[in-house]
Write a structure and sequence with these properties.
Layout lengths: L3 H14 L4 H8 L3 H9 L7 H11 L3 H5 L2
Helix pairs in contact: 1-3, 2-3, 2-4
């Protein structure tokens, strides 16, 4: 079962992505599109700080924004 933190990250990535595609965010973050999909769907929780930093930067926010409840 995903943790509350994983659920927060998933919801915040989806919300902050808005109308941008997962591919758009993945390319901006230098990640595979499946990593963004996995993050939004909590398919493989346990993301590294480095991955969270890349995604946050691609979304134009801080890591703390991704963690917010």
């Amino acid at each position: 079962m995903p943790t509350k933190t994983a659920r927060n990250i998933a919801a915040n990535v989806k919300r902050l992505r808005g109308k941008r595609t997962q591919r758009n965010i993945a390319e901006a973050a230098g990640l595979d599109v499946m990593r963004i999909s996995d993050m939004e769907n909590m398919a493989r929780p346990g993301w590294t700080l480095s991955t969270l930093e890349k995604v946050a930067k691609a979304l134009g926010v801080t890591v703390s924004e991704l963690l917010k409840n």
